[in-house]
Amino acid sequence: MTPGKGSGRDTALSERPALDPPSWFTEQANVQDPSITERFEDDWPDCWAAAADLLEWDREYDAVFRGSEEPPFEWFPGGRLNASYNCLDRHLPERKNQLALIWEGHLGESRSYTYRELYREVNAFAAALRERGVTQDDVVTVYLPMVPELPVTMLACARLGVRHNVVFAGFSADALAERMERTGSEYLVTCDGYYRRGSAVAQKNKADNARIAVEQAVEVVVVDSLGLDVHLGEGYHDYDSLLERHRGTDVEPVPRAADDPLFRIYTSGTTGEPKAVDHTTGGYLAHVAWTSQSVLDIKPDDTYWCSADIGWITGHSYIVYGPLALGTTTVLYNGTPDHPEKDRLWELIDRYAVDVFYTAPTAIRAFMKWGEEYPAEHDLSSLRLLGTVGEPIDRRAWEWYREHIGGGECPVVDTWWQTETGAILVSTLPGVDEMKPGSAGKPLPGIETAVVDPAGQAVEQGTAGELVVTRPWPGMPKSLLAGERWGEAATRGDEWRYYPEDGVVEDDDGYLTFLGRVDDAINVAGRRFSTMELESTVAGVPGVAEAAVVGADHPTTGTAIYAYVSPERGRSEEHLREEIEAAVADAIGEMATPREIVFTPDLPKTRSGKVMRRLLTAVANDEELGDISALRNPAILGELRTTTSNR
Ligand code: ATP
Ligand code: MG
Hints:
The protein is α/β, with parallel strands linked by helices. The chain is built from 21 helices and 29 strands. It has a domain at about 520-645: GMP Synthetase, Chain A, domain 3, CATH 3.30.300.30.
């Protein structure tokens, strides 16, 4: 591979030095054979039996895939299985005393569960839910922080064949009520409260308000997380008392059809209103188990840690279902990375000798901002593989992650996927593929994508376009299996395709570099610039911790580029301004030089840590903000309005 192919233009994206996977990693990797892609290609769709065969089926599927060019599609038709059985029961003969779950609280309190203990708790709670009258038509809403009772509730639901709908614990009562009403959910599992950055959040109060706000009657189970003296009135139950009553009961896992729903989840709400997504039992679990094994390289003996919140799809797939399906030890952390100190995560990796760590670019950029001395204080040599997901990761952050967390040794996988895809679709296979910092990699074996223009026509290699997924995949949700599509995607062309609405450029090796949301691309005087290309150039300037770039109206030039920049501590803004302008002019061109550079201590972000560019555009244009329920730090908007208009 020669460096410098990239987007085919002389831009920041075109310098792509490739790194081979280290041989010590390849020798132990779950996937070592580079011909896997070819084999999957020759054998599609039957290649996906490799994923299904990681699971235990109560009834073997009749075919791997059924469908023609058009939906409806079916994965593993005829097959029946239970997700809780696959994550617990089947591991007991070999691993009953191995840890399934290590939980660490915000101030160092901890609890762990062996597979046998987790099995018992899940069975007892499943028995309790069954006794409360929960049936397969119900949806159990779960409004819990990162406590062990969260995965226990999910697995108890799965055991009964009942859908769960986990709502991120930091959401407001209104956001909870809206989701419960949209799903018609009549059961809610929550807790008294929890600590966030040292202060208590009154979770039950929020749950009470949501319960009053929804039309349907709701039964509530309350976990005692903080020992608060909360009032449990009519319709409320105490989790521990329920559990006590059913301790020792074994609940027969209910086999579900492969395409029966396992759970409902809503998308993050970064670009607009959150969308409801229903994932299947067989296809989803197979895809998640297979990618946990081949991309995250998880082995049963590993201690594995994904630092996402279970409230997002990443936590569902890669804290709970994937790792437990493979029988590994998964870490659950209820706290923030900077409390009590900014070395909290590194302390935990050191203490538990974590083998594989999976996090998000937003977290990595925060670690960079805080400084490399925090990880340097700890022994991180247990780490074998690092992963990232959630947003494009620029080269500088990628390299920092590998250097300062991975000791310059660990491979890094940049995994692209979405709530709607259920599991990873694009990534390198860490034992087989070379890595190109800043580029996610190829579509996984068995996944087919294309890059198209707005009319849906394939663009030339090296030209930026929109990603489309051109073949079904096992983790696809129910609505896509049935042929419903989201948003505008439905109106484009006749051929079946899924439009994730992400911009991308493909290099000569088939590697995909993500350029940001299609809707965020900036058009200046007829030229399109990707947010990722601009942002990674700005973020590449030493002293810049984080940057977001949007197009907004300008009285003289029409659309102009606005850069919002969060500097590292102690940097001179005037100096940075010049450096940023020079870097953009140099890497992309004079035309792309930001018209305005606004310095800010923080950027508006979703509760899952993604930059909400539409709010920056609204601020720059002095417009209405629209739905900000997903916004984590509303205070920053007032500050930005002032700095943007005073510029
Ligand atoms: P909403 O759909 O409600 O606007 P959202 O798209 O942020 O919210 P998610 O499903 O959590 O909700 O996020 C998926 C999106 O995150 C992808 O479409 C993509 O834009 C981005 N993303 C995820 N992983 C990567 C990655 N490795 N590289 C680039 N972008 C990524
Ligand atoms: Mg989305």
